[in-house]
Amino acid sequence: MPNLRHNETIDTLLNRRSIRAFSSEAIDEDTVATLETVAQRAACSQFLNDWSAIKITDSSIKQKLSEIGNQMYIATAPLLYVFIIDQHRNAAIAHKNGVDTSSDEFMLKTRYRFTQAQNDVILALHAMETAAESLGLGCVILGSILNSRTQLIDILNLPEYTYPVLGLAIGKPAQNPELKPRMSANMQIFENTYPADDAELLENLADFDNRVHQYYDLRNASRPVDAFSAQILAIAADDIAKKHEAEDVEQVTRQGFNVA
């Protein structure tokens, strides 16, 4: 079996974990500026710069986001960002130069551009997360703030052609959780084509199920968590997903994008 190579960057990535408890110590301005600059240096499709990040410093807004996400640690994060798809800025540029952004002539509101912008958001957020962890900070990516997209859009006063994607909470860790297990590489990394045989694809599933169950059991024995397979089954058959999908289309359309 090959031996992994190591350097500071690789070790930072190999040791990433979600931190949900932070010390109250503030993060200095130089560190904040560094993290924001790193995010801006991330790869960006066609150099459209089609994302933005909103730094949340107002404690009342932090509290509202924690209530939306039903995660109280959001309110205590020393540094909190909401990353958004942002074609509004590009729409303003286009409008200034004579493009009717409400017409079909404006192509930055299409499903394709929405997806590309979403990809750019993720790249920028991940760059910031990795940089923060390399400086000894802890992070947690927040999908929970999308529990109510309507509220979030209104709270952040997001204009047309913008859309929230994820939040990122950053601070000095006040916990040291175990690394969460990952599935065997042969279940997730393939050569040339996708495996044709599902039996081969799932060959190591039982081992992964066991490792996931042990991880959660060690983390909190009083709150047992199902194996990976059972978690997938629960989510796959969850009617709530249908509700969220309908909300997604409604809110994306409300923000001016044509994804239908």
The biggest beta sheet reads: 4 strands, antiparallel
Low-confidence stretches: none
Shape: globular
Q: Roughly what is the average pLDDT, rounded to an integer? A: 92
What share of the residues lie within helices? 40-55%
Strand proportion: 5-15%
Secondary-structure element series: HHEHHEHHEHEHHHH
Q: Over the alpha carbons, how many angstroms does the gyration radius reach? A: 20 Å
Q: In what order do the strands lie side by side in the largest sheet?
A: 1-2-4-3
- N- to C-terminal separation? 47 Å
Number of strands: 4
Helix/strand/pairing class, anyone? alpha+beta
Core attributes:
260 residues, single chain, globular, 45% helix, four-stranded antiparallel beta sheet
Structure explained in plain terms:
The chain is α+β, with helices and mostly antiparallel strands. It is built from eleven helices and four strands; from the N terminus they run ααβααβααβαβαααα. It has helices spanning 8-14, 29-40, 59-69, 73-76, 88-96, 111-134, 149-155, 198-201, 205-219, 228-236, 240-254; strands spanning 51-55, 79-86, 138-142, 162-171. Strands 1-2-4-3 form a four-stranded antiparallel sheet, sandwiched between helices. Helix 2 runs antiparallel to helix 6 (111-134). It is globular, with a radius of gyration of 20 Å.
Task: Tell me briefly what this model is.
With 260 residues, the protein is of the alpha+beta class.
Structural topology:
Elements: H1 8-14, H2 29-40, E1 51-55, H3 59-69, H4 73-76, E2 79-86, H5 88-96, H6 111-134, E3 138-142, H7 149-155, E4 162-171, H8 198-201, H9 205-219, H10 228-236, H11 240-254
Helix pairs in contact: 2-6
